[in-house]
Structure formats: C-alpha cells, structure tokens
Write a structure and sequence with these properties.
The protein is an alpha+beta fold. The chain is built from 24 helices and 40 strands. It has a 7-stranded mixed β-sheet with strand order 6-7-8-9-15-13-14, with no helix packed on it. It has a 5-stranded antiparallel β-sheet with strand order 1-2-3-5-4, with no helix packed on it. It has a 4-stranded antiparallel β-sheet with strand order 10-11-12-16, with no helix packed on it. A hairpin with an 8-residue loop joins strand 6 and strand 7. Helix 8 runs parallel beside helix 12 and helix 11 packs antiparallel against helix 12. The C terminus is likely disordered. Belongs to the WD repeat mio family. Keywords: Repeat, WD repeat. One of its GO terms (cellular component) is cytoplasm.
Length: 920
C-alpha cells in the first residue's frame, strides 16, 4: 500500500501518515527544543513524530473521528473486512493502541472505504468487497451494548452504557491493550451481492449517505428507509465519492481510467452529471473538495507530481426572498506542483485556506499553500477591480486625476448617449455640440446632405447611395452610366482644363456639396461659409476650381488682411503668403508663359498649404495629369472626389473612385462613406472603423437612422446586428435604461420591418384564451372608435370574452378587474414622439391596469396596490406574509418618477374560483 496522509479534522497542527504503519505527527514552525524524529515539511514548518501504531499489517483505509473527544480516535479498515476503532494511547513514540473495538462482518473480504457521520458521530459506515448473498455496505453504531472478550477468550457483558449521538462514550477512553470489544450486528445493512467502492455522508442530511457500487452505480441511501436506495445514477465514476462541504447537494466522483473522468453531480437531478472533466492520459487515484474554498476541487493521478485543480465558477440569480436558480457553471483548470517525485496522496487542511499536505511514494512530505488565481475586471464605469480568493480590491483614484485631452472611447460614448446623440440629437448643429471628431461630423454631414437630396426636387426618391454606386451607373435607368460630355461654357472662360458633365457626375457633385443651386445654395454662399470658419485656402482653391479666379483673389486678399489684424485666426498660413499667391493668380493668362509657370512651380514647392499647392498645380498642369491633387491626403475627400468628377474623363474617373474607395475601406476612414454609401462596402468600412476605434455607437446609430432606405442585406448582416445589440447591452450596463428604451423606439419607428411580437398577454385560467381575443370593436367599424377617445366612455372588460367567467377581484376594493386599456384598438392621432406623455396616459389609464405579484399571485388595480404599499410592507391579502414590493431589486435600486417606478406584474389570485391571469 502506498503511503497516505490525512490532516486531523479538528486539530490544526496534527496529521497522520499510514501505509506500513500509522504515524501521528505534530506540525511545528521551528525544530528547536524538539525531541524525537523531525521531518521538514516546508521552509517554515516541520513535523514532529508523536506516536506510532505498528501492529496493524492488514491496513487498507482509515477514517479520523470528526470530534475532539476522544482524542485522536481512528477507524481502521483491514483487508479481511474487520473495522477497528482505536486511539493512540499516550505520548510515547512506540506504543500499542488503547482500547480496541472491532466490528467484524460475517464473511471476510476487503474493506474499501470508511466514513464517520459528521453529525451523529456514533455512526460509522464501512464499504466492503462483494460476497454472494451478503451485504457490502454496513453502518455500525459504536455506542450500542457490546460484548467484551478477555484474554482467556471468555465473553462477558460490557459494563459501559450506551451514550447519545455526538457525546463521548466512556468506553472510548484510553484503556488496557489486553481488552478488545467486539461489535454486534450493524445498525443498517445495504447493497446485497455488490461491492461498495467508496462512500460519503451528507453533512446536513445526517441520515443519508452516497456510495459508489458495482463499478456502475452511484446510490443515495436513507437510513430511515433501508429497503431501497433513495435515488441512483448509472455511471462508471464510482470512486472517491466526495460531498461538497459548501453545497451539500453537489457530489464529485471519478472513474480511474484511462481516460480518467471526474463527474460533478447534483443529487436533486441525478440522471446525468452537471459536468464532466476529463484527463485523457491519466489514471486518477484521489479526489477531494477544498473545505475552506468554495468550488475548488482537486485530483491527483498515478505517477504524477502535480495536483490538478478545478475552480468551478457559479452564477446565481434570484434572492433569498423567493426561489433562486443557478446558471450553468464554468470551470477553470490549473495545476500545482508540490514535489519533484510522484504524489501518492494529499489532504486539505481543515481550517487554513488553500493549505495542502502531500506525500510521495518514498514517504517524503510537503506542506504548501496553493496561491489563488488573480482575476481582473473593468467595471462599466471604468473602475479596475482585482479578485483573489475571498478578497476583493477595488482600485479607484481619490481624488480622481483629471482626464487627458483624448478621453477613452467608453467615456465619450457614455457622455454622448446621455446627451441623446443620434436619437434626440439628429440635426447637424445639435450633433456638433457633443461631437469633436471631425470625421464623425463629416459622416453626419453626409447623412444630412443625402436627406436634403431625397426631400427636395427631382432627387426625392434618392436613397443612401455612394459616389461609387452613382458613377458606376447602378442608380441610372438600365444600370448603365451615361457618357460624359465636355461642358463648352467652361471653355469660353480663362481656364484651359476640360470640364466633363453628365447626370451621374452632377449627382456626385451634389453629394460632395459642389452642386451649387437650389439644394446647396450658390457658390458665393458656400465660399462665404468657409471663410467664416477660417478656411480661406480651401475657399480660394474651390473658387479657382469653379472657374472664378477673381473670387479666389478676393478671398486670398481677405485672408491676408485677417492674418494681419487677427493673430488668432484659424489659418496657419502667414498673411504674406496669401499676398504672394494672390499676385501670382492675378498674372495668370491662357498663353503659355514659361517664366510665369516657372515662378509658380518654385513658389508651389515653398508653400506648405495643400490647397494652395493644389491651386498652382491646377493652373500649371498642361497634360491633364492631376495626380498630385487627387492623391493629396490633406485635401478633404469630398473636394478631391468633386475635382475628379469635374476634370477627369470617364475611364480615369471610374478607376480613381474604385481605388480611393478601396483605400478608405482598408483604413476604416469614415470619410469613405461618401464613396461607399449604405452598401455592403459601407459595412466593410464600418467594420474596420469599429475594430480600430471600438466606436460601436456611431456605427450603430448611422445605420439605424438610415433605415429603412438601405438595402435589406445590410439590415440582415450579422455584423450590423452585433453592433446594435452590443450598443444596447452597453447602455444596459451603464444603467442608461431610458436611453436604451428611446433607442429601441427610435429604431422601430424608422424601420418598418421591425414589428416586435407581443410579449405579455393575459389569459383565462378556465378556457385558456386571451381576454383580448374578441373584446372591443373591430377595425371595420371606425365610426365607433371616436366614442372611446375619452377613457370614461370606453367599455370595460369585466369577464373573459370566451367563456364569460368573471375576471378576478382586486384584493383591496374587491371589484372585478377590468380596464379600457384592454381594448385592442389604438386611438388616432397619438404622437409617439411627444415630449409630454399626457396624451397616451389620458387614454390608457395606469390606475386601472392589471397588477400582480409574481411570487404570491395576489394583486389588483395598479393605483390601489401603489397606495397600499406606500404605508404597508406585506401583501394586502389576509394571512399572506409576502413582501411583494421588495422582490423587485432593480426597481428599488434605480427608482423612476411616478407610477412607472412600480415593477408590478399582472397575475391575480382570489379566494373564490375565478379566471386567473398568466404571463407567457
């Protein structure tokens, strides 16, 4: 037999080892003043040998008495089936044992397992091997009247009386070694003709024990009814049965293997294990729950030097006020190495957290502590929390340090959500008050530009297309792009560049804001807005691109004056540079003057402003190669695209748009929405943007606000649904439930395809039909709907429309339930977006709503229930102790205004038999 180790269940510094003999050790922190054999357990602890029992050569298993008195009492199971109850006699190193008690089965066979009852400590269970027509599971009462056999072999009645459960019997005190007490018939005999391989008592149900038998059964027995097992499960995991000390209905067992399998059971549902933990290449030899750590299970395998740990994580919903339920458990596996040689046995310390004692095959001992796994979590409010065992460390800044200029995206999204970004704030000027990111602002600017095109003039049916879709001709009749023509009016002006025009190009210019007319205003208005923002270089260059050199020179002159008089103006270009560029532009002629062009190229190389450099490049280019302008990333995308739509031929334009779109998608640049529009390319672009910035808020809101004018494949895309659902969950995590509700309403109003199914309805307990099934006037009689606009004139439903049974009574006023709000028709002219909800409340009166408690099923009219719980804590029904209003922890944690703060649910119950209401 390999060496085994066992901590004392009641003494924190004593343990035994057993194999060839039984040795009692005392754990000490220092070996000074220690007499006798001393073993080193760790760097800080040693083991002092106290006593040895060396006269038991048939030892197979041991169980330590769970109480302090008698001192160091052991139950020893032998290979011949005898169970000996003995104790260490004194402090001598070599000693025989004290008074021995023997419990002998009818037929000799090996004893596999022993277990003391943790509550009724006079009960000792023994599991034996199989013998035909004999039991293998016996429960002995060590306090029954016994027979004493003296040295001569003569039997005589014992002088010791029987004692009650949990008290010391006088016969168990130290006695003389010549005497042996032989136990009589067992208190209970179970499991005929089957071997019992392992067993364990339940710590609270002290009349019940569980046993692994016949290599295929786990059985639960109740000593109050030994005729048959209380419950059973078919499994090969019948070894090492162990009851969780923290959750007594949870049991662990294993099959040796290979492969070794650990099964976790819930005896309340004993048909199959809760979970199965496999060790494919190992043969498991031992298993035990940690007595000090919740959900920590440990195992060892043959010829292995590590202890395998399973940290079983649980989540529980509910409270002590009503029935709670557990979610599926998850397991975190890890291992601990205590020695370099293989471990033959281990034992958890009964009181010191995570302390374990192991023994190797050669008898070397190791005392060590398993370090807790440290977990880290960010809270939705960005607080960092560390968890280590039973300790929780919350890291907060006190006082908080000021945030940097660039806040984390989570802070930004929360701040925007509270302000109503994308739901209450949709107009561009409103969004600009909460958004500082210029690319996000450009995204919403594009959105409103498309909205204006759809709502004005001949482009009313225009959807959220991008320039790539428009230029490729997909929006044209027949799906073919019309051939562009050279606009002759430009050729009569001073500019030499060819200007192309077509219907598709004009639409693209409208999207870029360059289609100056009824929709976007005149060119002069557009340039004036740019100047008011301090964008003089851009305004001058756009004026030049639109064949207005005089306007460009005037803008540059105004910029020079502003730079001189106002040092804090937005432009970073010195005023002298504006004057130089204005003078150069004033000397432009259509003739090819080499000196002027040479001076302009030299001046262009010295200017840092991308727009001013683009102006000189445009004037000095002769072959129509505008790559330096089109590829300048510092020029706004809409300006580059509009320039391409005006001055590039068809073949070059399509190629440029496609290449630029691909670059924008690759970078996840929101400016690329102008090119992609709300197409599948847009989803790819937004995916890159979300991966780069984690801004699921903007990605979700732009799609929600674009509904239903987007292709159906976008709304069905799994990525889009993931962003929207993640944003909703994020709002819930922040407890911004009002904002999340507004988002859902906003989405459902804009997307007609979202028809939420009915989630709650009231049914009759007699016929099972909904009380709304046939109540109220039908839609085919609209002239009667006007009669019910006033709630006082609307008929009340007082009974089931199917079986005509009356509805339950209100538990306070005892009047049958009934409310006009049960009528299915919707009154006309209800503004769902109205700021004040008085219109809706005046039609559907909350005071008459069905309200009930989900626990006791009592309820009544909403206003009666609310008034009652303002002054009382218990249910209004007589003899009902339910605290209905306290069951809703969410409503109590975050109360809202008025009656909406009452989280009540409509299942009613009355004393007389009436229709009850059921939630589905």
């Amino acid at each position: 037999m390999k060496p085994q180790v066992l901590w004392s269940p009641h003494s924190p510094d004593r343990f035994i080892t057993f194999g060839k003999d039984i040795r009692l050790y005392k754990s000490v922190t220092s070996q000074e003043n220690s007499r006798g054999q001393v073993l080193q357990l760790s760097d800080k602890s040693h083991a002092l040998l106290s006593s040895v029992i060396n006269d038991d050569q048939l030892l197979k298993c041991i169980a330590w008495y769970p109480h302090t008195e008698p001192d160091d009492l052991l139950a020893i199971g032998q290979s011949n089936g005898r169970v000996i109850v003995t104790s260490f006699a004194n402090e001598n190193i070599q000693s025989d044992c004290g008074l021995r008690r023997e419990f002998v089965p009818r037929h000799p066979r090996q004893c596999n397992s022993l277990a003391w009852n943790p509550v009724a400590s006079n009960l000792l269970a023994a599991g034996l091997d199989k013998v035909r027509n004999d039991v293998s599971l016996m429960v002995w009462d060590i306090n029954v009247q016994l027979t004493v056999r003296d040295i001569s072999g003569q039997e005589k009645p014992s002088r010791h009386s029987t004692v009650q459960s949990g008290k010391q019997s006088p016969i168990m005190g130290p006695g003389i070694s010549e005497s042996t007490t032989i136990g009589n018939r067992p208190l209970a005999e179970l499991a005929t003709s089957e071997p019992t391989l392992s067993l364990a008592w339940f710590p609270r149900e002290h009349n019940c024990l569980i046993a692994g038998q016949a290599q295929k059964y786990l059985r639960v027995f109740d000593l109050r009814d030994t005729s048959k097992p209380h419950s059973a499960a078919v499994t090969k995991a019948v070894y090492g049965v162990s009851v969780d000390p923290h959750i007594e209905h949870r049991v662990a067992s294993f099959s040796e293997g290979p492969p070794g399998i650990v099964c976790i059971w819930d005896i309340r549902n004993f048909e199959k294990p809760l979970m199965t933990l496999a060790q494919p290449s190992n043969i498991i030899t031992n298993l035990a729950w940690s007595p000090t750590r919740f959900g920590l299970l440990s195992t060892i395998a043959r010829d292995s030097s590590v202890v395998q740990l399973y940290d079983i994580q649980h989540a529980q919903l509910g409270s002590s006020a009503y029935n709670s339920y557990e979610l599926d458990a998850s397991v975190i596996e890890r291992s601990a190495k205590s020695s370099k040689t293989d471990i033959s046995s281990f034992s958890w310390h009964p009181t010191h957290e995570n302390r374990m004692l192991t023994i190797s095959s050669n008898g070397s001992l190791s005392d060590f502590t398993i370090f807790e796994r440290i977990s880290v979590a960010w809270s939705p409010s960005s607080q960092l929390t560390f968890g280590c065992g039973k300790h929780l460390l919350d890291c907060t800044q006190d006082p908080p340090e000021p945030l940097s200029d660039e806040e984390d995206i989570s802070f930004l999204m929360k701040k925007r959500a509270i302000a109503g970004y994308g739901v209450d704030l949709i107009q561009l000027d409103e969004i600009s008050n909460v958004i500082q990111d210029p690319k996000v602002l450009k995204l919403w600017s594009w959105y409103h530009q498309v909205e204006r095109l759809r709502n004005q003039g001949k482009r009313k049916g225009f959807n959220f297309y991008g320039i790539k879709t428009v230029i490729s001709g997909e929006t044209s009749q027949g799906g073919v792009c019309s051939k562009s023509k050279i606009e002759q009016s430009y050729q009569e002006q001073r500019l030499r560049a060819k200007v192309y025009c077509s219907e598709e190009r004009q639409t693209a210019l409208s999207l870029c804001g360059w289609d100056f007319g009824e929709v976007n205003g005149t060119l002069a208005d557009f340039l004036k807005q740019l100047q008011m923002k301090g964008m003089y270089e851009r305004a001058a260059t756009i004026a030049l691109f639109n064949n207005d050199i005089r306007q460009a020179i005037d803008i540059l002159s105004a910029a020079s004056k502003a730079a001189t008089t106002n040092p804090n103006h937005n432009s970073k270009v010195p005023g002298m540079v504006f004057n130089m560029v204005a003078m150069a532009l004033s000397g432009y002629t259509v003739e090819k003057e080499a000196l002027w062009r040479q001076m302009c190229r030299k001046l262009c190389s010295e200017i840092e402003s991308p727009y001013l450099r683009a102006a000189f490049t445009f004037l000095t280019t002769e072959d129509g190669n505008f790559d330096n302008i089109l590829n300048e990333s510092r020029i706004e995308v809409e300006d580059r695209v509009a320039f391409a739509c005006k001055f590039l031929p068809d073949n070059k334009l399509a190629s440029y748009i496609n290449n630029l779109t691909a670059k924008m998608i690759e970078k996840g640049d929101l400016n690329g929405i102008l090119l992609t529009g709300m197409t599948q390319d847009c989803v790819d672009l937004l995916e890159k943007y979300v991966n780069r910035t984690t801004d699921i808020q903007t990605a979700s809101l732009i799609i929600i606000n674009s509904s239903p004018n987007i292709p159906p494949e976008i709304a069905k895309d799994s990525r889009v649904n993931t962003w929207i659902q993640s944003y909703r969950n994020l709002l819930d995590m922040w407890r911004l439930w009002h904002q999340r509700a507004k988002l859902d309403i906003h989405y459902s109003l804009r997307d007609n395809s979202l028809k939420p199914p009915q989630q709650v309805f009231v049914t009759c307990n007699f016929c099972g039909n909904s009380i709304l099934s046939s109540s109220g006037p039908s839609d085919s009689r609209p002239r009667k709907i006007a009669q019910y606009n006033n709630p006082s004139n609307r008929p009340k439903v007082m009974g089931c429309p199917g079986c005509r049974k009356p509805l339950p009574r209100c538990s306070l006023c005892l009047v049958h339930m009934g409310t006009p709000s049960t009528l299915p028709q919707k009154p006309p002219n209800i503004d769902l977006n109205a700021e004040k909800p008085k219109t809706v409340r005046s039609i559907n009166q909350f005071s008459n709503w069905f309200t009930w408690c989900q626990s006791c099923r009592h309820g009544g009219h909403a206003n009666h229930i609310i008034d009652w719980f303002r002054e009382h804590s218990e249910c209004p029904v007589t003899s009902c102790p339910c605290h209905c209003m306290k069951l809703d922890s969410v409503a109590m944690a975050t109360p809202t205004e008025g009656a909406d703060s009452t989280k009540s649910s409509p299942v009613l119950s009355t004393k007389e038999k009436q229709p009850s209401l059921t939630q589905h």
